[in-house]
Design brief:
Length: about 475
């Protein structure tokens, strides 16, 4: 017994005196072998960009980028050559090297340079907590949602310190919370404001109550939410305990119909099930009634609000100012973010067709196209984490009339897409690395407004007009 105790003591002492493997050393050795030829021996860049300048061209998920590569830039995938632990060690080495060199996110630029305009960048509103959406009531009043559940008012460019009182309760967990805000096309006459948010069923027997996207409307008077009406509530037996892929954007077409999106809620197969609300874009009237020409009103098994299906997680909706068609942007998995034109009764294929893969690198589907399923107008591979979209309308950027503004979370971008005959003929990045872009829109003044999740800021972009002497 004494020998056993002595053995345990000696073993513990020896283990304690052996220095633990230093992640820096292991990661540095691997970096030198696999990464330095392209990114530089001191991470300063070479054939590939610097890794210590605070700028991440392809998002912050270094582990995913190392594992699966960035094919369009010639970066190979190292997932087969390196283990998960080795890839994590390289990622730690990069982070620690950047930190030791004092690398930090570059400041938000004062000026942007694009093909058509030099642009002035102003911090219009600051101090928000995870802002999600912005909507202009008129030229003086703006509403901004915070995912945590607050609806904020901006008057003449000044953020009110108090949130609107009595707004509906949300379940602000993971991707859920207060999402979109939209203004009724006849707001001047009726005062309606619309909200999309994650709603949970109250059930004391469950520690994780099921939730689903809900749409409501109300009026704001003297800083308070009044006349609350739920205009869309999914069947409660379709609520899910997951906390991601809620959608959700709201737009109105020229006939006054209201469209909103619900993500697949992590149940990808249900995007093809017309008896389930998730993975769909829905169309209702502003009071919650169903348009008589909705595509599945005669199908006793289908939900009559459904307008299109086979979507993964659409977080962007916009109405084309010329054609009146609804365009959507939706998150793919790893790759396969999409821009779509949303048409009555169409099936957009998820998860039976996709240009993306599962996050572990396995196939979602063997098919990128199948009969009867709509192809996207555009897809990105790898994903940019596409979010809100909006067609530019305004006099400030006249050359950009009817072009599509596209926001990206992971790539921290605003892109501008030129479209002809429903085809994207050119795209340009007009803002990069200012933060995670959750919403982008044009204001009544013609400026472009960019909502940054992190930091909680709204930027205002205006063209710099130079005096040419005439």
């Amino acid at each position: 017994m004494r020998l056993l105790v002595l053995t345990i003591i000696l073993t513990t002492f020896v283990q304690a005196t052996i220095p633990a493997e230093v992640p820096d050393a292991k990661g540095e050795e691997l970096y030198r072998e696999f990464c330095s030829k392209c990114h530089g021996s001191n991470l300063e860049g070479g054939n590939a960009p610097s890794l210590v300048d605070g700028i991440w061209m392809y998002g912050l998920d270094k582990i995913r980028n190392i594992t699966f590569g960035i094919a369009q830039q010639g970066m190979p995938a190292f997932g087969d050559a390196l283990s998960k632990d080795q890839i994590e060690a390289i990622s730690r080495f990069i982070d620690e090297s950047a930190h030791s060199l004092g690398a930090a996110r570059p400041p938000i630029p004062d000026t942007l340079y694009t093909y058509d305009y030099d642009i002035l960048v102003q911090k219009w509103v600051e101090g928000l907590e995870i802002p999600w959406a912005i909507a202009f009531v008129d030229s003086t009043t703006t509403l901004i949602t915070e995912r945590t559940g607050r609806l904020r008012i901006v008057q003449y460019g000044v953020l009110s310190p108090k949130a609107v009182e009595n707004t509906p309760a949300v379940i602000a967990q993971s991707q859920g919370g207060l999402m979109d805000v939209a203004i009724d096309p006849d707001h001047g006459q009726n005062g309606w404001v619309y909200l999309a948010y994650s709603h949970a069923l109250v059930d004391t027997s469950q520690t994780r109550p099921p939730a689903m996207t809900r749409i409501a409307r109300g009026r704001i008077r003297e800083g308070k939410w009044h006349d609350h009406e739920v205009i869309y509530d999914a069947p409660h037996d379709t609520y899910q305990s997951t906390r991601h892929h809620y959608g959700s954007r709201i737009v109105f077409d020229s006939s006054g119909n209201l469209y909103f999106s619900v993500g697949d809620r992590g149940r990808s197969g249900e995007a093809q099930d017309l008896s389930k609300p998730n993975g769909k874009i829905h169309r209702i009237l502003p009071d919650g009634n169903i348009p008589t020409d909705n595509p599945f009103t005669a199908d006793v098994e289908a939900l009559t609000t459904i307008f299109s299906y086979g979507h993964r997680n659409p977080q962007g909706l916009a109405v084309h100012p010329v054609t009146g068609e609804v365009w959507s942007a939706e998150h793919g998995p790893m790759g396969g973010d999409e821009i779509n034109i949303v048409r009555r009764g169409d099936n957009y294929g998820w998860p039976k067709i996709t240009y993306g893969r599962n996050y572990n690198g396995t196939l979602v589907s063997q098919h990128e196209r199948l009969p009867g399923m709509v192809q996207p107008v555009l897809f990105w591979r790898p994903s940019i984490a596409v979010c809100a979209v909006e067609f530019y309308q305004g006099r400030s950027f006249g050359k950009w009339e009817n072009r599509l503004l596209v926001s990206a979370l992971a790539y921290e971008e605003v892109r501008l897409l030129a479209i002809e005959n429903n085809r994207v003929i050119h795209q340009e990045v007009i803002l990069k690395n200012a933060g995670r872009v959750r919403d982008v829109t044009n204001g009544p003044d013609g400026a472009i407004y960019v909502v940054l999740n992190s930091p909680g800021t709204v930027l205002r972009l205006t063209p710099i007009v130079e005096d040419d002497g005439f």
